[in-house]
Hints:
This protein is α/β, with parallel strands linked by helices. Helix content is 36%, strand content 18%.
Amino acid sequence: MRCFVSGCAGFIGSHLVDRLLSLGHEVAGFDNLSTGRTQFMAEALRNPRFRFAEGDLLETDATARAMADCEFVFHLAANADVRFGTEHPTRDLQQNTIATVHVLEAMRETRAKRIAFASTGSIYGEAQVFPTPENHPLPRQTSLYGASKLGAEGFIEAYCEGFGMQGYIFRFVSILGERYTHGHVFDFVGQLQEHPEFLRVLGDGKQRKSYLYVQDCLDGILAAVENSRAKVTVLNLGTDQYCEVNQSIEWITEEMNVRPELIYAGGERGWIGDNPFIFLDCSAARALGWRPKASIKEGVARTVRYLREHPELFGAREGGFLRAGGSA
Ligand SMILES: NC(=O)c1ccc[n+]([C@@H]2O[C@H](COP(=O)([O-])OP(=O)(O)OC[C@H]3O[C@@H](n4cnc5c(N)ncnc54)[C@H](O)[C@@H]3O)[C@@H](O)[C@H]2O)c1
């Protein structure tokens, strides 16, 4: 199959490219390298079945050109940092909602009919039911990121209805693993490498979050694409575990062999729009035969090991690691 992958140089997208190539597919990757890195595509770039186009989804012609002849679109490019929403109020709308409409328009132009989309558990805002199922009543939105992803989901559903496309919408919890470059584990490892004697923690450390290892996330995406024939499939992807931020700090400090003093910013939220509890009901994805293999603790440990081997990744994201608290 010929696949288009937007966000192919990013954390999850670059792993997806490697996986699709290993399964024998041809891949057209598209990325503006705003947060993505060429080093994450090193292996793919040596593969003759991979072609990379550097470009921006906000440029419709470039997007359609790169998508030519592709049957399946994996749309992962986005502004994936939930924390900075209120500092850049139109960024999520542009990068997450409008860019998605551009992808859908490029699909109309090129006649690609199937799309998989990386949405987020953040669309549940402050959910009332835990674990939260896909059919949770439409909640009040608490972040511009979540709202922009929910808007994108709506456009995908409407294009599927209006133009005979097939859509797969995946609402991920936070993803962990090799090539991870944003989120709280990144923040904590960066801080501890710089000053192992203390650690600044956003909120009170009691936020409860669920995490999923990146290869398990890919298994979930591919299981759905292979096994679900619905016009639109909406699936949560996460583990059936959650942990307190404080618990993850214990795992990280154990892995790094440091004993820092913990300095809490206070309050039950890490930032405006942070959801103090994220835990998704993933039984629908499990019914398709998917099971995550790594526990949250294993995911954290692998991520810490990878980050320690790649100090060059720190300082690259907006505001440096000290502000990179929220991935969603
Ligand atoms: N990482 C997580 O925990 C997580 C959780 C839930 C959902 N998601 C979603 O999964 C997807 C991938 O996230 P990630 O963690 O790999 O993020 P990432 O920032 O590592 O990857 C995003 C990629 O998209 C590219 N990009 C951004 N805007 C672009 C544009 N306008 N045109 C072309 N390329 C553009 C970036 O350069 C980057 O390579 C995103 O849609 C994100 O919202 C991620």
